[in-house]
Amino acid sequence: AQSVTQLDSQVPVFEEAPVELRCNYSSSVSVYLFWYVQYPNQGLQLLLKYLSGSTLVKGINGFEAEFNKSQTSFHLRKPSVHISDTAEYFCAVSEVGGNQFYFGTGTSLTVIP
Amino acid sequence: ETGVTQTPRHLVMGMTNKKSLKCEQHLGHNAMYWYKQSAKKPLELMFVYNFKEQTENNSVPSRFSPECPNSSHLFLHLHTLQPEDSALYLCASSQEWGGNIQYFGAGTRLSVL
Fold first, then answer.
1. Is the dihedral of CA B4, B6, B9, B14 positive or negative?
2. What Rg, from alpha-carbon coordinates, does chain A have?
3. Which of B100, B103, B108, B110 is the best mutation test for A, with the most CBs of A within 10 A?
4. A73 class by beta-carbon count within 10 Å (0-12 exposed, 13-18 middle, 19+ buried)
5. Would you tell me which of A107, B75, B79, B97 could form a disulfide with B50, CB atoms 3.0–4.6 Å apart?
6. Nearest C-alpha neighbor of B13 from the set B89, B80, B113
7. Three-state DSSP class for residue B85
8. Residue of A nearest to B1 (CA)
9. Per the omega criterion (within 30 degrees of 0), is the bond before A79 cis?
10. pLDDT tens digits, one per residue of A64-98
11. How many angstroms separate the CA of residue B1 from the nearest CA in chain A?
12. In this complex, is the C-beta atom of B13 within 8 Å of any C-beta atom belonging to chain A?
């Protein structure tokens, strides 16, 4: 089974500052990688995904993530955050050919005015 | 709007009550999932249905009983729950089991008194 580690449970950042949310996974096999965002009182919304190809993936709302196979990481970044980015962010991994999604424990991003 | 609708959004029930959660997807997907989301824990996969057949039951107590009458609808029947069952219950769907993107509903916030 996979394990997905989101080292930072809470990340406060000032508005218009850059942010990076970290995600590491344990698998040595081929994987698909995802970031989901959960706004208060809502379900999970897909932010971006890596399935194959370019290791730099762009998603909605100006977010991007880079797949680093050697470091088994898929960190999420945004160059300038907005108040509306305040939410919980979940990293998820599934093995190519596998049936399960594995989620991290989430990172709570708070954007400070 | 993700195409996955859950009702009710909020539910308060006593330990002796019987209630049901409903999930409906309008995406033409063949796989549906129930997850439990508790504070500061990874999402816990509870059940998976693929083409209306249950394919996963991750050691979920029998007080949770799923039902999938067709590929578009998924229910979670609840009876004699415990206070520790209070959580956000999320439904998701994907094109097929093991599909590489899951789409989530907004969830049902359940409180067991």
1. negative
2. 13
3. B100
4. middle
5. B97
6. B113
7. helix
8. A45
9. no
10. 999 999 999 999 999 999 999 999 999 999 888 77
11. 9
12. no
